[in-house]
Request: fold
Amino acid sequence: MSQSKIERRTFITGAVAATTGATLTASSYGRVLGANDRARLGIIGPGGRGQELMKEFVKVPNAEFVAAADVYTRRFDEAKKIAPEIKTFNDHRKLLELKDLDAVIVATPLHCHARHFVDTLAAGKDMYCEKTMTWSIEEAESCLAAAKKSSNRVIGVGQQHQSAGYFIDARKWVKDGLVGKVSSVESWMSRNTPRGKGQWVRPIPEDCNAQNVDWKAFLNGRSNRPFDAHKFINWRLYWEFSGGNVTENMVHQIGWIIGALDLGVPTAAYMSGGVFSEKDGREVPDTISATLDYPNDLVVSWQSTFSNSRFGLGIRILGSDGTIEWLAGTTDMVSGRSVSGWSYSPEKTNRTNGEAIKGDAAGENHYANFVECVRSRKEPNASVELGYRSAIAAHMANLSYRRKQRVTLETARQVAKQ
Ligand SMILES: NC(=O)c1ccc[n+]([C@@H]2O[C@H](COP(=O)([O-])OP(=O)(O)OC[C@H]3O[C@@H](n4cnc5c(N)ncnc54)[C@H](O)[C@@H]3O)[C@@H](O)[C@H]2O)c1
Reply:
């Protein structure tokens, strides 16, 4: 099935689900939380990331989990280990019918995000949706439109680097005019695994079978077929369910760059690469070189490899008056030690008296920020607009890779409609 057909089918399924829940109107359940009221949270998809999120959110003062929904029975016990009192559901719509629920965390595989996003808003709940916000451009447009219609809801996305000290400092340095004209940003993300063991490949639990998994609900509109435990657990490796490393990791870094420099969506994208590290049947590339053109003379590049981790992860904002560098786990070439941190270095050519700055902002707890916004009705640090812009950049890059040609924003939007 073509990508656009899957998109339409998936989205229609989601939209129908949202509208048939006739009692789920945006105004039904919204309650105003007082300073001492506990924020009641639900989660859809308490798998690997979902359980990490539960552990983070239970630490936030005055927040508690009341429910979890998943299509795999194993997750109920796992989620109850973190929040023993929760109700569990095998269908997310049942969770959304709960009245005693203020906000929903969506941590399902990428191809289910749009459906859970739309249904959650239709049920009148606030929402924290994991990145990437959607699986496709068409879904990103529809989710943004749904968010605008539900403008009384608080929506945050799982791009936690937007709350970090290295984001707060970088944004301030840019706003203070320390970098001058920025025409180039370089970024990269690299990992390694032992030979024969592909990045992201997870073992299949013994109880992962057709009896314990609602396979059709997982497929979410993709063509029906017999249960496939490997694809259910390792959905990240396949285009039908995933956008590969671009939607797993580039999205975090591009979001950070978009936020720091106040960027919109790219005008064009080009991406090359392939499955070079482990040819284990995966479809999504492990080796990537992507460039994104932005208005006003800016090119952002992002590179990734899964066969060498020496230079970890990093971003360099290269301006006429200075450079902002954020490094995480990069190995210093001279000392051999791992380097992390963020800093500003002046370009003496244009800022003769400029001084280097070592970043030290404390940052904010991303999860507490979301809960705080559920109370205050403010916009979370990682907003739906940020989620949308980052998603469009990621999907344009993937589209270019799959079409083997440079893709403009116009082409990307046309392809999404086909
Ligand atoms: N922000 C971050 O740093 C970060 C880190 C890792 C993963 N993620 C994101 O979190 C999401 C989940 O990734 P993961 O590694 O936890 O995947 P996972 O497969 O471990 O977990 C997904 C869970 O969703 C459930 N599920 C599948 N279809 C469902 C449906 N239709 N309804 C309800 N539940 C359903 C699965 O049974 C599973 O428990 C992805 O979007 C991923 O990109 C974000």
About this structure: The chain has a mean pLDDT of 93. The first strand starts at residue 39 and ends at 44. Residues 44-50, 69-72, 75, 92, 107-110, 112, 130-131, 158, 160, 217-218, 220, 248 surround nicotinamide-adenine-dinucleotide (CB under 6 Å).
